[in-house]
Description:
single chain, 24% helix
Amino acid sequence: MEINHIALICSSEEVADKFYKNFxxxxxxxxxxxxxxxxxxxxxxxxxYKVILYSNNQIKIEVFIDEEYKGNKNSISxxxxxxxxxxxxxxxxxxxxxxxxxxxxxxxxxxxxxDHDGNLFEVKEMN
Length: 127
């Protein structure tokens, strides 16, 4: 089994682009609309959603745009991603104003970042 994609919510396309395209470096592949009828059938929400697909060769993230979304700052739900260098990502996070948590553990550390709407990512280094 493999994961095909992950779906998240963001408050605007600009906010989504800032994190997923500019910070993470994913390509903006396409946008599409989920009709209110389909959203109701799948998610039990009666509203239309614009969806943006960001991707590279390893991951696909569908971002549902909901201008009323107030963020997800208190959830333990998270996605774990791997990068070549966590220290480089921390430096980039500082430049982009991305909040990160660096938590010591024995000889290393745990690293978590949040997008601008509170979606949480654990960051591991590739082996």
